[in-house]
Amino acid sequence: MRDHVLFLKSLSHHDRYLSLVEGIRDLGMEQYLEEQKDWPTWAMWSWEGLYLPSAVHSQDGVVLEFLEMTTSAKITGLSSGMQVTLGLGLLLRECKQAVEYEEDQAAPNTPTYIGTSTLDIKILDLVGEVGQHECAVIAEVASNPTAKVQDHACVQDVAPACLDQEERMVEDDKSQAEKRQRQEEEERKQSLEKQRSDDAEVKWQLEEKQLEDANEALKEQMVKDKEITDEDEDGKDIAGVSSNDHDCDKVQEEVRDKVKGKKRSKSGGSEKVSKKVKTDIHCSSRVRLPSKRAMKD
User: How far apart are CA 36 and CA 24, in angstroms?
Assistant: First the structure.
């Protein structure tokens, strides 16, 4: 018996469950153990597995069905009380393993269904409540063994209460899921709007940059065009001066020829030249023609 009690304590540190384990110590020995109908094999002392079957983790109603069986079980003494306590303890241990499961830290022999288990904190608390109820039943049986059958008939009301609580938990889960879904949808909309706003801002900045670059390119082109225009005007000025110089030289040559011809006609063939005639004519960039008098002579 002592080994059994130590094993039961090792299954869970839940306060209500430990109270249940302490309570069964006050139960007397039974003359015979009445076998519970349809009691699951995983809730018996013959179960040697480290984990409960996958159906406990995946099939809806398995846990609730066992809790209903627990509240309707006939506890008449130590053996029947320990059997109920064993089933609740194993279930609490399984809930804790499922809740605390982390894939990267799980042992190599951990079943894969532990990671996808439906057992959670709410189920664990529900098991604890059933354990608290069974603790009260055991206390009544220990204090008044002759009233155990009559007292146990009142326990039937606990199963519907557990069912109602399970249904409320399901409804709460649905409500929370819908709330999370609406919140996630709102967050997606806000994220999409922010993305669109950011894209529009980037597009506007890009267009502004392109406009600035175009203006800068236009300014540079205008400067280059002005420099080319100035260079063309300077070239025209230089060409004009060269043309004027050429015309001036031609006029000077013509004036010299006329002056020489006049001198020869006046001297009558004399070789003596009475006065040296200055034939150099100042030329500027503007062409100067000989006077009318010079043209008549």
Answer: 18
Distance CA 16, CA 221 (A): 89
Query: 143-147, long-range: CB within 8 Å, 24+ apart, which pairs?
Result: 145/28, 145/76, 145/77
Cα gap 73→39, rounded to integer Å:
9
pTM > 0.85: no
Query: At 16, which amino acid appears?
Result: R
What backbone torsions phi and psi does residue 46 show, to the nearest 5 degrees? -80, -10
| pLDDT above 50 for 150 | no
Q: Write the single-letter amino acid at 78.
A: L
Q: Distance between CA atoms of 25 and 13, rounded to whole angstroms?
A: 17
**Which residue's entry shows tokens 């996808």?**
116
Tens-place pLDDT, residues 37-47: 789 999 999 99
Phi, psi of 245 (to 5 degrees): -65, -40
